[in-house]
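Hey,
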Amino acid sequence: MSRRRCCGLIDETIVCETFIPQGYSRWPEVIVQLEELEALRLKDKVGLDQVECAAAMGVSRATFQRILGAARSKIATALTEGRPIIIQGGNYTIKNRVFECIDCRHVWEVEPCSAGGKHGYEIDCPRCGSMKKRRLDKGQWGCGEENL
């Protein structure tokens, strides 16, 4: 019996879930999982090396390589055969988002489910109520008591 694959961390949910080629064909669609799309984003769009990508997703380098290989194969199949791409499902966890208020400099973390489905621009500062904020990556914020 094979081992259950570990959860990959993804930065956030996607904007578009379906890509359909012009002159839609009768080929069945290609299903790309969310962690596969995240692997493509980190490696091919952001340009991180595999060790950095694996760390960002919270998986081993070998697991990252398998996820990335599967994603690239699926995308290549869809593009060369003119098949629709559906992005859905997978084994993933969405990362918490970290914001810094521009007005009061307060830093806080928001869990995806605690935001009630809100996008970042809809979340106000818990300290001063300002809507002026910037999103931080985990490596950008300090570890002082006030920042947690």
